[in-house]
Structure formats: structure tokens, C-alpha cells
Amino acid sequence: MNKIEIENLTLQYSDGNESLRNVSMGIRENAITVLFGPAGGGKSSLLRCLNRLNDMADVQTAVGRIMLDGENILDPKTDVIALRRKVGMVFARPVVLPLSIRGNLTYGLEVMGESRRSKLDDAVERSLKQAALWDEVKDRLDDQAIALSGGQQQRLCVARSLALEPEVILLDEPTSGLDPISTAKVEASLQELKKDYTIILVPHSVQQAARAADFAAFFLQGELVEYAEGKSIFTTPVNKRTEDYVTGRFG
Amino acid sequence: MESNLGWKEYLITRAIRVAGYSAIVFVTLIFYFLLREGLPTLAEVKLTELFALRWYPIEKYFGILPLISGSLIVTLGAALIAIPFGIGTAVFISEIAPRWAREILKPLVELLGGLPSVVLGFLGILVLAPKLRLLLNLPTGLTALTGSLLLGAIAVPTVVSVAEDALDSVPRSYREGAWALGATRWQTIWRVTLPAARSGVLTAVMLGVGRAIGETMTVMMVTGNAPVLVTSLGGLFSPVRTMTATIAAEMGEVANGSVHYHTLFFIGMVLFIISLIVNVTASAVVFRSQKRAERVLS
Hints:
The complex is a heterodimer of chains A (251) and B (298).
Chain A: E1 2-13, E2 18-28, E3 32-36, H1 43-50, E4 59-68, E5 71-72, H2 80-86, E6 87-90, H3 101-112, H4 117-130, H5 134-137, H6 150-163, E7 168-172, H7 180-193, E8 198-202, H8 206-212, E9 215-220, E10 223-229, H9 230-235, H10 240-246
Parallel strand pairs in A: 3-8, 3-9, 6-7, 7-8
Antiparallel strand pairs in A: 1-2, 1-4, 4-5, 9-10
Chain B: H1 2-38, H2 40-44, H3 47-50, E1 55-56, E2 61-62, H4 65-96, H5 99-113, H6 117-136, H7 144-168, H8 172-180, H9 185-196, H10 198-214, H11 217-222, H12 243-250, H13 259-297
Antiparallel strand pairs in B: 1-2
């Protein structure tokens, strides 16, 4: 079943750059959908539409609709704060907040108004286990989060989104700064997580796209070129441009 | 050609080195001069008299406590005004204001910082003091509060400018991280941006306080200059005299080398030590948080 339905989305920044041109696609529940393509293709812009983080940037026009569970989230009346709790996001560079490990995890819940210690502790343990970080940090939850290694920080960021019990998780090149071992750990936890969540991933390489994708969408200069099951798009792409990119002829 | 370059290089590095060392030399010389002129006070005036409650040098009363208390209360009042307003303005400029407003506000605030303090003092005497007198029903409008308000206005631009730079250097990704977790703009500012910029914000506060405590002209014009010990917050509403104003007012007519003269320099020493404490505290705090960051990053 489709969790998200993007209909004719066109996005233009106020400096005149068009970032997305008439994009339509459906995003399946409990699967990893990969958005890939060369830089500047509009992948991140699309991700940032899905949790309305673009509100804070200089977007001039956003035309079209993004239906999440049947509701248009681009509607100005949408409760953006509630939306961002439902649609979690992990960034390219791990952004740990200047707080302790525990503080990073409970921050989102605390700003929601949750203050019961037991609830918070449960959320900390559950989310760290889901992000495969629990064993490494369970004895030092009150240390500063910035003291963790890069890979741990990124999994902490994954855990932080999970603590809010979102339904959709957006990941914007979550492993671009990580070593192969940490990357493998993050990817493995994504495969676990898709059982419960809808995951949308912008990978940092075509190889990662091919490894992780259940479905994959190829973006080129704001245009959705091809969208298909991961198995087929990386082995038998239909579009010539997709084939050229996947086989490494450009990009 | 090459030897020519080497010459230039030599001269320039030498010039820079001289400039650098001269700063140290000047500060040392100033400090030495201050000590030479101020320390004799300790021999000439008994400590109990020096830290007594009466400043009336013509009759040989050299109690500097009223002056210290005057400086402290005026500075405290100024800090209470400048810190919330300064940080608030900095947050507004860097986090909330739309771009066009930011581009107007920032230079405007910096312009305000360049306003000569005598001009502000003038405004204080002509506008602020009479208004305060009527508003609070005081015998005179020239009070510690008047001084605090004006000093606050003097310190605000310093605080804003430094704090805004600190907030501005917080990576945008921190804010996005918090927004993506469903934090509102205010929650992001309060829990993420401000804590991340705290060492810079603290520096801003210390510099603002330092600016306020060393300010002379404005306070001399508007605080009434009565050397009375301030014992409670009620002292805000009566005239006081600060250390800086005392030195400025009396230095011109004092006999060179007299006890009074030495005592004025002694007051200068006290002032120097107070601002030293403020500055050392500030840099210690900043240094500590820097070291923590380094330890964490390595």
C-alpha cells in the first residue's frame, strides 16, 4: 500500500532555481524507497518537502500535492510540528544536539510535553536497540553525545528520530561521512526498521542505492526519470539516461 | 629579486613582531605606573580609613567603599538591562528577523555602539532624568537608576554584536536537527541554538559588563555624584558616585603627589582589578568550554 502519494510536485527556490519539475510518485509502506542520481537533482529538496523543512528555506513556489495517509501536507493548514513528529529525518552529517546521549533521545519527546521518566527511559532503550546502538552506549547514557564516534553519532540520530515513534523516516545521505563498517551497521538496521516504518533514503552512492533499495527513483536535474523496483532498475533500466548513470557512464 | 623579497619579508616580520610585543610593553608600563602612583596610598592612609564609609578628601576622609558600591550598583543595574535586551535582540536578529530586517538592524545596532557616551549623557540629563523624577516622584532625577538605564543602552550594542556573531556561527544543521524532531522555533532557540553558542554569548555578556563598569562620562553626568554608601536596592533611586566618575572629576584639581592624588590612583587600581577579574573569568569560562570541545573532538 502506498503511504505517500506525490502528485505533480514542482518546487522553485526564490533565487529562480527550479529544483523539482512535475514529479509524481507513490511511496510504499514498509519498504525502503531510494531516491538517487547526481547532485543537484532535487533529491534532498524532495525529502525536505516531505517534512516541510523547506519552510525554513527560501522556497518561492511549491505546486502540487503530497498526500500522506490521504492528507495533503503542503496545505498551509497542516500542523507542521505534528507532521515532523510523524515524519522523522536523519541528515548527512550526524547532527547531535549539544546535550547528553539521553538528552538527544528524549529531546523530541520533551518538547512534545512528555515528562514521565519511565516513558522517557523506555523510549531511550527501545530506540537505541532499534538503531543497534544500545550495547555500545547503555553504560554511559549521560555522557555528552559529541563524544561518540561518527558512526555512533549517526546511529544516535537514527535512534533520535525513532524515539518519537514516527511512521516515515527520511534519510539524507546518512552514511556519507562514515567508514564501511559503520555504514554496514546503519544499512543493516535500516533493513530491520523497514518492517515497521516507511523509509525513504537518499544514498551516497549508486552501490548503496542498489544494496538498499526495494524501490528506486532516479532523479536528474529536477526530473524523475525512472521509478521502478530496485531489482529491475539497477539491472535492466528502461531509460537510456538511467542506464548511463547506473553503469557509471556519467555522474 | 629574491634577495629583495627576503629583505621585505625580514622588515615586515620585524615590524609585526615589534607591534605585537609593544602591546605587552604598554600594558606593563601602564600597570607599573598605576602601581607606582597608587600603592603609596597604603602607606599614607590606614586600611580601616581607606575602607571606611566617608569620601570627603578635603577633610582627609578617604573611604572608598561608597564609590565601589556606587560603581557596583550602577553596573549591576546596567547588566540587568543589557543582558536580557542584548541577548534578546541578538536572538531576534539572527534567528527570527526576516532577511531585510536583519540587514537594517545589524548596522543600526553597531552604529548605536559608536554613539559617543557624552551624547547619551546629555540626553540623560535633558530627557531621561526629568522624566524619571516625575514618574517615580523622586527629589532628583539624577540617580543610580538613570545611570544604569544609560549604561545599559551603552552596553546593549556590544552584547548584541558579539552574541549575534556567536549565534550566527552555530551550524544551520543544528537548527534543522531540532526542527526535524518537531521542536518549535522557540524551543530550538532555547534548547539548542543558545546552548550551542553559550561561550560566545557569555563573552558578549562579560564584554558588555566590562564596558559598563569602565564607562565614565555618562555616569558622571547623570548619577548625581553623591558619594553615599549603597546598602540596599533602594539605593538605585538615590544619587551615587562611581569610581570612574570620581577619578575623572577630581584628578584635574588635585595636588600632584598628595595623598588625595595617590588615593585616586588607588581607586584606578581597584577598577583595574575588577575589570581584570571580569575578563579573566570570561576567558576562563570560554577556555574551559573550548578545551572540552577539543578533548571531545580528538
